[in-house]
Amino acid sequence: MSHVVYKVVQHDGGWAYTVNGVFSEPFPTHAAALAAARRAANEQRVPGRTEAIQYETSDGKWLTETAAGNDRPETEVEDGR
């Protein structure tokens, strides 16, 4: 099982959270960014339906895989304050 960390940080004149180096939209307050990070982390743990997914690889090939709806990561929120 994978592990995803949401980190709350100062960003772009306000606050945001990052996941694997990607920033969320900026929030005006630390509390708003922390609440958004917690909400996103919680939503990512919710199981869904098993479905077929299609995606294009960097070399232009299309692949089809089955994504298990119960294969959800562990998540945590780190407060960078």
From TrEMBL:
It holds the Pfam family DUF2188. Residues 58-81 are annotated as: Disordered. Residues 71-81 have a biased composition (Basic and acidic residues). This is DUF2188 domain-containing protein. It comes from Bradyrhizobium ivorense. The lineage of its organism: Bacteria, Pseudomonadati, Pseudomonadota, Alphaproteobacteria, Hyphomicrobiales.
